[in-house]
Amino acid sequence: MGSSNQSHYKFVKNIFALVDCNNFYASCERVFNPKLKSKPVVVLSNNDGCIVARSDEAKALGIKMGVPFFKIKDIIKKNNVAYFSSNYALYADMSQRVMDTLSKYTPGIEVYSIDEAFVSLQALTKEDLTSYCKKIRDEIYRNTGLPVSIGIAETKTLSKIANEFCKKNAVLNGVFDMTQFKDKSKLLSRVPVIDVWGIGKALGKHFMSIGVFSAKDFASVDPCVIRKKMGVVGIRTQMELNGISCIDLDEIKHPKKEIISSRSFGKYVTDINELEEAVSQYTCRALEKLRMQRSLANFIYVFIQTNHHKLSDTQHAEGRFAALPNSSSFTPDFIQTAKQLLRKIYKPGIKYIKAGVMLSGIVPDDSLQLCIDDSKDHSRRRSLMNSIDIINKDIGRDTVRFASSGINQNWQMKMSFRSRRYTTNWSELMTVKI
Fold first, then answer.
1. Separation CA 213–CA 382 (nearest Å)
2. Residues 6+ apart with CB under 8 A from 342
3. Which of 45, 177, 266, 364 could form an S-S bond across to 152 if both were Cys, CB 3.0 to 4.6 Å?
C-alpha cells in the first residue's frame, strides 16, 4: 500500500493480527466447485488414509480429525459427504495468493503456516483496525474465494486467541479486535490453558494439575512456577497474555538446515528399479526446495522402511549417509549418489512401504569458493537447473523431469479422489460451458 494511503494513519506500538483461512483445504475445494457450498466436505491424507480437513458441516456430523477414512464410509454415504484426496499443488498456490494479497495491506508479514499469517498493523490507529481488517478480508475473498478470520491484539499470543473467538462467533463477521477491551480477564477466563499458543495438551495437563485451568489463570500465576516448567519461553507467553509484546514478527524466512522429501507408496514395493524411481523423484523434490532457498548441500541421506504395523511381514528399516565432493544443488549428482546408497541398504523380497531422502550440510549458494575452471562448470550447471525450475514453475510441475524418476510411477501414493490442479497445471484448467 502506497504512502499516500497511509498518511492519515497515526503510529501505534505493537498491534498484531492473525489472519487464518477457515477450513483451508475444504475451502480450496469449494472455490472451484460451487456445488459444494453448504455441503459437508472432507479432505484425506496421503494414500487416502485419514481425515485431515473438514468443513463446518462435516464437523457437525461428528467426523473427527485423523479418523481412518474406511471407518466412516457409512457416515459419508448416508450424509452425501464430498471427499477429496489432498491436492497439495492447488493448496500451495491458493495459499500464495492469500499471502500476496496480505502483503499489500501491511508493513510486515510473517507466514506462519500454509493457511495462517501474522501481520503488523502498527501504521493504523486503533479506531481503524476493525474496518481496515474487514477490507483485507473482503479483498482476500474477491481475489481467491477463500473466507478468512482475523484476530487483532497487542501481542501475537493474544491475536491467536482473538482469532479463535472470531471463528466461533459468527456475529463478529470475521474480525475481532481485542485491543478494544482494556480488561481482558473475562475473555481469557473462557480460554482453556491447553489452547494457549505454545502450551498445548502435555504442558496444559501439568498446569491443570496445579490449579491453572485457563489463560487467565496462566496470566496471573507466580512466574516462578512457569519458569520452572517452561523456562524463558513460558515467561514470554505469560507476558504476552498480559499485553506485553515480546514475540516479534519473523519476517525473514530462514533457510532450512535440513531438507526432507519422503512419501509412503501407494502399494508395497519390492522391485529395486521401482525403489530407484521413487528415491530419484524424492531427490528431485528435495533439490527443488534447496534451490528455492538459494542454498547448496554437501550430504544426502537415503532411507527405506517396511510397514511396522504389519507384523506378519518381514521388517526392515535402514538408511545411509554420503558426502558429495563439493557443496552443490545439481540434481544429477545427488540422484547418482542416492541410487548408490539405496543399493547398499536394499534387501530383495522385502515389501517396502516408504522411502525418502534428506539433504544436510546446507550453506548459502554464494558461499562456495571455486577455481576458475570449476567456477565455469558450476555456473553452467546452475543455469541448467534454474531453467528447468522456471519451466516447471510456469508450465507445470514435472513438465521437464529426469528419466531416472520413471514414466508410469506405479509406486506413487494413492490420490484416487484428487480434484484438478486448477491453478498450476495447463491440462487441468477449469472449463466453462456456455
1. 55
2. 272, 275, 276, 279, 302, 304, 355
3. 177
- At 6, the amino acid letter reads Q
Q: Which amino acid is at 49?
A: G
Give the residue carrying C-alpha cell 469449494: 30
Taking the CA atoms of the chain, what radius of gyration do you get in angstroms? 25
Q: What are 33-66's pLDDT values in tens digits?
A: 989 999 999 999 988 989 999 999 999 999 999 9
Task: Give the CA count within 13 Å in the CB-facing half-sphere of 29.
Answer: 26
> Cα–Cα distance between 28 and 80 in angstroms, integer?
19
